[in-house]
TrEMBL record:
Family per similarity comment: Belongs to the DnaJ family.
Recorded domain comment: The J domain is necessary and sufficient to stimulate DnaK ATPase activity. Zinc center 1 plays an important role in the autonomous, DnaK-independent chaperone activity of DnaJ. Zinc center 2 is essential for interaction with DnaK and for DnaJ activity.
The keyword Zinc-finger is assigned to this record: yes
Domain J residues, every copy: 5-70
Record NCBIfam families: DnaJ_bact, PRK10767.1
Species whose genome carries this gene: Albidovulum sediminicola
Protein name per Swiss-Prot or TrEMBL: Chaperone protein DnaJ
């Protein structure tokens, strides 16, 4: 039976990004996991098929081979059938050579050694740490950031050569980027000292970028921060990183989110916690208290009679939103019964009188000291 297309298995298009492929795989893995499909004998094979597809598509090198040759790139059937009269074995060797050249040509200097790939270098990925408030993480926000980075030189259009002239093949390594030296029985291969491994040299370097093909510049970018982000969330902006050397592809920019601590709320995933002080009278007699919510609103909470410190009450749907949908979490109100301070003489007198009359109104104290007496009696025995 012919294998299904890996993109079809995961349900993504061929132009899908790495994040989209990863997200699709996670969804498929949850859906097809054998533990959740015990009544479906096909689930295990479908689960393995999804794993196999993801193992190939998550790796840039293997994905490139698959995009060009399909399943034949990995099952030994690459190039099957006649090509210009060649048999299967010769065709396989030719195809493997093509794949090897396509995937590793940058490192080995390419076939001719003078092509653009032998000199172009991909720009570095950049990291930007961005701090946002809890309210911004709740609703989402658009931020403008200034990123110091390298951009393609406008004077030479990224070639590194003055006046738009083309770089020339390095005469030392003949465009390979490496030189070999014989040492006894061994041949040692080193990076070419003339071109530093680029395979090409610029005889008339651009005066603006000194032949690098890029210049330092600060760029202003607008970044959309989705609702529900938390500390550690990573946002990838493809192609917004450092410019490549001598016309190479641009790297990516990764935004790492840090959510600042809030004065009123503590966060745990999608749940929010808010500690509310209440007076002894309110805790004993019951009542109502008005509490804030992260969206700027207010909610009235009923305090039951005899409430103790640490008692929690839940406001459903008043927590943080889930990053990728799925509604909102809850907000938990935790009571803290407050002991009054700076009492007047009259207040102290009333409290002493109340304490004498409250012998049977403190069940927790009665239970604790009863256990203490039993402990002491046991020690005496």
């Amino acid at each position: 039976m012919a294998k299904r297309d890996y993109y079809e298995v995961l349900g993504v298009s061929r132009g899908a990004s790495a994040d989209e492929i990863k997200k699709a795989y996670r969804t498929k893995a949850k859906e097809l996991h054998p533990d959740r499909n015990k009544d479906n004998p096909q689930a295990e094979s479908d689960f393995k098929e999804a794993n196999e597809a993801y193992e190939v598509l998550k790796d840039d090198t293997r994905k490139a081979a698959y995009d060009r040759y399909g399943h034949a790139a990995f099952d030994g059937g690459m190039g099957a059938g006649p090509r210009g009269g060649a048999g299967r074995q010769g065709d396989f060797a030719s195809s493997f050579s093509d794949v090897f050249e396509d995937l590793f040509g940058d490192f080995m200097g390419g076939r001719g050694g003078a092509g653009p790939r032998s000199r172009a270098q991909r720009g570095s990925d950049l990291r930007y740490n961005l701090r946002v408030g809890l309210e911004e993480a709740y609703s989402g926000v658009q931020k403008t950031i200034n990123v110091p980075t390298s951009v393609a030189c406008g004077s030479c259009n990224g070639t590194g050569a003055e006046g738009g002239s083309e770089p020339q093949t390095c005469p030392t390594c003949s465009g390979m980027g490496k030189v070999r030296a014989q040492q006894g029985f061994f041949t040692v291969e080193r990076t070419c000292p003339t071109c530093a491994g680029a395979g090409q040299i610029v005889k008339n370097p651009c005066r603006t970028c000194q032949g690098a093909g890029r210049v330092e510049k600060e760029r202003q970018l607008s970044v959309n921060i989705p609702a529900g982000v938390e500390t550690g969330t990573r946002i990838r902006l493809a192609g917004e990183g450092e410019a490549g050397m001598r016309g190479g592809p641009t790297g990516d920019l990764y935004i790492f989110i840090e959510v600042r601590e809030h004065a009123l709320f503590q966060r745990d995933g999608t749940s929010l916690y808010c500690r509310i002080p209440v007076s002894i009278a309110t805790a004993a007699l019951g009542g109502e208290v008005e509490v804030p919510t992260i969206d700027g609103g207010r909610s009235r909470v009923r305090i039951p009679e005899g409430a103790q410190t640490g008692k929690q009450m839940r406001l459903r749907g008043k927590g943080m939103p889930a990053l990728r949908g799925g509604g909102h979490g809850d907000m938990l109100i935790e009571l803290a019964v407050e002991t009054p301070v700076n009492l007047t003489a009259r207040q102290k007198e009333i409290l002493r009188e109340f304490d004498k009359l409250a012998e049977n109104n403190n069940p927790e104290s009665s239970s604790f000291f009863s256990k203490v007496r039993s402990f002491w009696d046991g020690m005496k025995g």
